[in-house]
Specification:
two-stranded antiparallel ribbon, 51% helix, 1% strand, Serine Threonine Protein Phosphatase 5, Tetratricopeptide repeat
């Protein structure tokens, strides 16, 4: 007489019918194990001891196929690789498009120095051919500072704040390499710092110019500009009054820096006279 077969057990890991020592579906052990804490025998697949409650480490193969920690089936690997490649390609294309759009409003750094026509101290063309900018390596420290100053001032007049903030640190560093600086260089540095919003640095240049010559027009003009931005009304009034008083005698000296910044001086004197009338 044939003996009836023993009913198959149910795997505690995947829930499928199983027999033998390991589950044929997920590979989990079907044999009871002893608790690592109290030594009591555990039921197959138990995560905690029913006697002492201690958590039990799972067997090496005791991880169902659907759990996050188990490796994905081999058949899905090509799809995963293809998805990663597609995401990488899309990110690269998006970055390239962003850089192209950004370049429309931010001048490229390689155009910072060899721009002809931006340096009012450089040589001018004869009107028949465009003047090529010199090799950067051939520029003197003063020429590099001048070109960066003119670039920052031009961009600031065009309202390109992002470009100003990009080039201003380069210009500031170029002027600081000219130590010791004269009044003309300090005025340029102060104007660059003003455009970049570094008002304490700009104010320091005005104070230094006026400490060496309390009637120097560029020091008075720069100091007045910063006082106005910092809303120091009393200081602004004093500096404008000093500018109007010093202007006749100082302008008669025809210093090179006065001629170079004649437009700034004329504008500042006009504003000071208007403020005095009001």
């Amino acid at each position: 007489m044939t003996q009836p077969s023993a009913p198959e057990a149910v795997c505690a890991s995947c829930g499928n019918p199983a027999s033998g020592r390991f589950c044929s579906s997920c590979g989990a052990s079907l044999e009871p194990a002893a608790c690592a804490g109290c030594g009591e025998m555990l039921s197959p697949g138990a995560r905690f001891c029913h006697s002492c409650g201690r958590a039990q480490a799972p067997a090496p193969n005791d991880v169902p196929l659907s759990t996050p920690g188990r490796a994905a089936p081999a058949s899905s690997l090509p799809w995963i690789v293809a998805a990663i490649a597609l995401i990488t390609l899309l990110a690269f294309l998006a970055g390239s498009a962003f850089n192209r759009r950004r370049g429309s409003s931010l001048d490229a750094p390689q155009n910072a120095l060899p721009q002809a026509g931006l340096d009012d101290r450089g040589a001018a063309g004869d009107g028949t051919e465009p003047v090529r900018g010199p090799d950067i390596s051939q520029l003197s420290p003063q020429e590099r500072a001048d070109r960066l100053f003119n670039r920052v001032m031009l961009l600031n007049s065009q309202g390109k704040t992002d470009s100003v903030l990009f080039f201003a640190p380069m210009a500031i560093e170029a002027y600081q390499m000219l130590s010791p600086m004269n009044a003309d260089q300090r005025y340029d540095l102060g104007r660059v710092a003003e455009a970049a919003g570094a008002l304490p640095l700009a104010r320091a240049q005005a104070d230094t110019i006026l400490r060496e010559n309390k009637t120097h027009l560029l020091g008075l003009i720069l100091g007045a500009r910063i006082a106005q931005l910092e809303k120091r009304t009393s200081d602004l009034q004093k500096l404008e009054a000093a500018l109007l008083q010093a202007y006749p005698s100082e302008s008669a000296k025809k210093l090179p820096e006065y001629e170079r910044h004649a437009a700034d001086i004329t504008s500042a004197v006009t504003d000071a006279r208007r403020s005095k009338q009001n």
